[in-house]
Design goal:
Structural class: alpha+beta
Shape: globular
CATH topology: Beta-Lactamase
Helix content: 25-40%
Number of strands: 5
Number of domains: 1
């Protein structure tokens, strides 16, 4: 007589509709935050919320790849930059790159908090892509 072995509960799979991605990214938009983008590693724009996303996606991809090659991801895994046009927070989500661009009035802490919150939400859906 064989003993029945308990089976582990199935791991929930989180699927995110491509149509809902801009809505999810749009949750991070606030006064001073201009655009939020999700790109692949080659710079192709996957989804965005805000303005001027196409030009930002290619720049972000290049910056993140340079960051990984030269500095590594660091303890925080988030790249924060200040430019003439404003501030930028970049974080990898699986094989994708998430970026949040703001003007200089938005504190870096708030900008990073927005990126990390989106990362936490998107990771279950994007980690296996």
């Amino acid at each position: 007589m064989a003993l029945a072995t308990p089976t582990e509960p199935p791991v929930p799979v989180h699927l995110l509709s491509p149509k809902s991605l801009p809505l999810v990214l749009g949750e991070a938009l606030a006064p001073g935050i201009k655009v939020v983008t999700l790109t692949n590693r080659s710079g192709m724009l996957i989804a965005c919320a805000g303005e001027a996303a196409a030009s930002i996606s290619a720049i972000v991809s290049s910056l993140w790849q340079s960051h990984e090659k030269c500095e590594g991801q660091g303890g925080l895994g988030c790249l924060l930059l200040e430019c003439e046009q404003g501030r930028l927070a970049v974080k990898a989500v699986g094989s994708f790159i998430l970026a949040c661009c703001s003007d200089s009035t938005v504190p870096f802490g708030l900008l990073k908090a927005k990126v990390v919150a989106l990362y936490d939400f998107l990771l279950p859906s994007l980690q296996n892509c």
